[in-house]
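Problem 12. The chain below contains 249 residues. Write out its predicted structure in token notation.
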Amino acid sequence: MAEVLQFRVPAGSRYTLLVWGLEEEAGLEHSLFSAFSKFGPLYSLKTHRNAAVAGPGCYAVVKFYSAGDARRAQLACNGQKLFQKSPLKVCLCTKQKGFQQQVLALSSNKCQELANHYLGFNGWSSRIITLQNMSGFDGENEDLGETSQKPSVKYLCAVEVTLPHHGLRSRGVALSEVDVESSEDPLQFVTATRRAQKLAAGKALSCAFQKILLIVLENGKVAVEYYPTQEEELTDSLTEEELKGLIQV
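Solution.
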């Protein structure tokens, strides 16, 4: 049975494992990561000390990108000692309350991690099509007395992600704005500009990945589908010159 993965934060209890019976020790998170990442890439892993009424020790919350990977890890690790002397209790989280149900986009770094795992480091590439300085484009508000207390730097970025082995490309466009802490310090403008450029590029890369679906087959092979909205598909079909012109307008 195939599983469809999106470049989005895994939402729901079926992606999450609770691990009890952990002994507090140095490098605990590293040991847990080594043990559970064997079953698939992890979105997050956090350890917490037990409540006072529960006695000494720790528990961990491990979240996978794949529900299938989480289930395999639970079956294989429950009741096993793994890296410590006493066996661990590992279960799928069954409570929906308290879990983020809203589907959120992955950060650009997480998108790259997921793509590297399933597509390989050479299975995808990205490039910046255009990076436009949009600062001051809404200066007409100044005539109306609507100037902001702090100046800001705005950048609009368009990024293209290409999957050559699948014959697929996807584009993302994003805008970022960063306040300049001190308009009297030129270095503050430089710092804000660099940060705005980096944020815009990261958001655009994440936006491009949102249109890509990874279909993980039982044999471990990965198929890819392109799934944009009608408006996004129109943007992706534009030539670079047309896209740049649209952004400038």
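Discussion. Residues 10-92 form a domain with the Alpha-Beta Plaits fold (CATH 3.30.70.330). Students who got a different answer should revisit the alignment rule from Section 12.3.
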